[in-house]
Design a protein that fits this description.
- By secondary structure, the protein is of the alpha/beta class.
- The protein folds into 2 domains: 130 residues, Aspartate Aminotransferase, domain 1 (Alpha-Beta Complex); 259 residues, Type I PLP-dependent aspartate aminotransferase-like (Major domain) (Aspartate Aminotransferase, domain 2).
- Helix content is 39%, strand content 17%.
- The longest helix is centred in the last third of the chain and has 21 residues.
- It is globular, with a radius of gyration of 22 Å.
- The chain starts with a helix and ends with a helix.
- Keywords: Aminotransferase, Pyridoxal phosphate, Transferase.
- One of its GO terms (molecular function) is transaminase activity.
- This is Adenosylmethionine-8-amino-7-oxononanoate aminotransferase.
- Belongs to the class-III pyridoxal-phosphate-dependent aminotransferase family.
């Protein structure tokens, strides 16, 4: 496909996700990525970028395991290209559910597979609702989520998302959501409990939260925060859900990042397959799954492609690679270095605060316009996120296979771009 053909096809036929399509008519085109190598991607013009965002927090293993995943995919496609988990099952989904039960916190032994993270979050809500109805508490119709949380884009997940600009076109939310403070706010637990009491604790079905909050810029919870959430859930009878779509599978150095306690459900996606295939899941605790095993009861939810045999085979190979190549060990070893380097950015006047954990960091900025910084990062050959949906931040989530020199390059380039912005303003 020629460069002109790419631009014509993009302009005239592809509706991009969150795409500002008017810019295409004005000749302003986004990156079109043609291939990947290691932790780098190359666009259709041959420009090379270090992908410091793992393509939206997904590409844990970078871009050079294709042959190995292709081998697993070919074997599965030859054996059984497709079957649902809709009142039938197939070996890859069963084996993957077993593997995930081995990795998950004690007491979480079942997996409901989806096609991605939004579906996983929405499925968690539907499971929570059915759990409460089965136990005679049909009045538990509300959920609790943080003010600036991002939990997905399907209508149920969007209701849980706390970013107004993403929600405005779609009318009344599908779920009645009580807003709790972001993790980093003072007295967050006390404010959360106050919001629950004001809403009526007997009406709350679940509380969902990320172990490290993405939207707003990598808010790390203080010690005891998750213990406090667990205590609130137990005191008032609702379910606690850890949204690990981003943090799961090594982003913070462990398979699961939720600290201190065992949640009732965990939502996962992205790193489950390192994005070599689309897949998500809800990992469900034994207590929550129990009603679906009662005589005459059923789980009233299903997705045609949830647990696709090909995706399950890719996820299994992904877990094999994590173990064989000691991916988590690499993150744990280099995370202190990345933390130290990122905090060096606080010496710049434009940087208000650096926060994060593992391979997941944000620098909060004192700027009014992020567009020059976005452009500067790309000119520097770096893909990072410059986001102002909460605070203005530059955010990174590099592939877990990055070496020390890659992390240094990321921080050096961010520092250079921020330094340029200071000189111009």
């Amino acid at each position: 496909m020629t460069d002109d053909g790419v631009k014509t096809g993009l302009r005239d036929h592809l509706l991009m996700h969150f795409g500002q399509h008017a810019k295409l008519r004005d000749g302003e085109y986004p990156l079109v990525i043609a291939r990947g190598e290691g932790v780098h991607v190359i666009d259709t013009d041959g420009r090379r970028y270090l992908d410091a965002l793992s393509c939206l927090f997904c590409a844990q293993l970078g871009y050079s395991y294709g042959e190995e995943f292709a081998e697993a995919a070919t074997a599965q496609l030859t054996r059984l290209p497709f079957n649902t988990n809709w009142n039938t099952a197939h070996p890859p989904a069963i084996e993957l559910a077993e593997r995930l039960a081995d990795l998950a916190p004690v007491g979480i032994n079942r997996a409901f597979f989806t096609s991605g993270g939004s579906e996983a979050v929405e499925s968690a809500w539907k499971i929570a609702r059915q759990y409460h109805v089965a136990n005679g508490q049909s009045e538990r119709v509300k959920a609790v989520a943080r003010r600036t949380a991002y939990h997905g884009q399907t209508l149920g997940a969007l209701a849980l998302t706390g970013i107004p600009a993403l929600k405005e076109p779609f009318g009344p939310p599908a779920i009645d959501v009580v807003r709790a403070p972001n993790t980093g706010e003072p007295d967050a637990l006390a404010q959360t409990e106050a919001a629950i009491i004001a809403a009526g604790p007997e009406t709350i079905g679940m509380l969902i939260a990320e172990p490290v909050q993405n939207a707003g810029g990598c808010f790390v919870p203080p010690a005891g925060y998750w213990t406090g959430l667990r205590e609130l859930a137990d005191r008032y009878g609702f379910l606690l859900v850890a949204d690990e779509v981003i943090t799961g599978f090594g982003r913070i150095g462990e398979y699961f990042a939720v600290p201190e306690v065992v949640p009732d459900m965990i939502t996962i996606a992205k790193g489950l397959t390192s994005a070599y295939a689309p897949m998500g899941a809800v990992l469900v605790g034994d207590r929550v799954a129990e009603p679906f095993y009662r005589p005459g009861q059923a789980l009233s939810h299903g997705l045609t492609f949830g647990g696709h045999p090909l995706a399950a085979a890719i996820a299994l190979r992904n877990l094999d690679i994590f173990e064989r190549d000691k991916i988590l060990d690499g993150v744990r070893e280099l995370a202190p270095h990345l933390s130290s380097r990122m905090h060096e950015l606080e010496a710049l006047d434009v940087v208000k605060e650096v926060r994060g954990d593992g391979f997941f960091y944000a620098a909060e900025l004192d700027v009014d316009d992020l567009n020059p910084i976005r452009a500067g990062l790309l000119r520097a050959g770096l893909i990072a996120r410059a986001d102002d949906r909460g605070a203005a931040v530059v955010q990174i989530a590099p592939p877990l296979v990055c070496e020390r020199e890659h992390l240094d390059e990321i921080v050096d380039k961010i520092g250079g771009v921020l330094g340029e912005s200071l000189q111009k303003h």
